[in-house]
Amino acid sequence: MNRWLFPRVLLLAFSVLLASCANSSPPTVESLSGDGEYQVMTYTDFPDVPEFGDATIYYPLDTRGSIGGVAIAPGYTERQSHIEWWGPLLASHGYAVLVLDTNDRRDRPNLRADALIAAVRTLKAENSRNGSPLMGRIDAGKWQSWATPWAEVAL
Asked: What is the side-by-side strand order in the sheet with 138-147?
C-alpha cells in the first residue's frame, strides 16, 4: 500500500467512528479530508502522570456545547512526534485530544494500555481542574481512545 494512502484510509475510518459522537452534522468525505471549522489551541501544563512521558492537549477554541475527548498513543518505537498531526486535525473538528509519548519507545503493550487509560483519566480530569482551558467543556459520554499497533485498548 502506498505510504500516503494508508494514513488517509486510516484517517477516514477513524473520523467516521468519531463522527458518531460528535456534535455537528453527519460527515462527508470532503468534510473529513481536511481541517475542521474550529481554531485549535494547545497546552502541556497539566499535572504529571507516571504512566506516560510528555503529552500535548489540543482543543477547539470555541464550540457550540460540550466536546468529546480522544486519547492517542504512539506505536512501538514511535514517539509523539510521529502522530502529533492527529491532535490539531481532530481538535479542528471539535474534540479535545491528548497525544502522548510513552515512557520508553519499547514499552510493551500492557504498559501502552496503562498509558492510554491514564491519558483518558487525565483528559477527563481537565474537565474539572481549576485553570484548565477545558474546565466544564468535556462531555463524559463522548470518549474514544486510539493507538497504533502495540498500544490498542478498549475503554
From this structure: 40-43, 55-60, 95-100, 67-73, 138-147
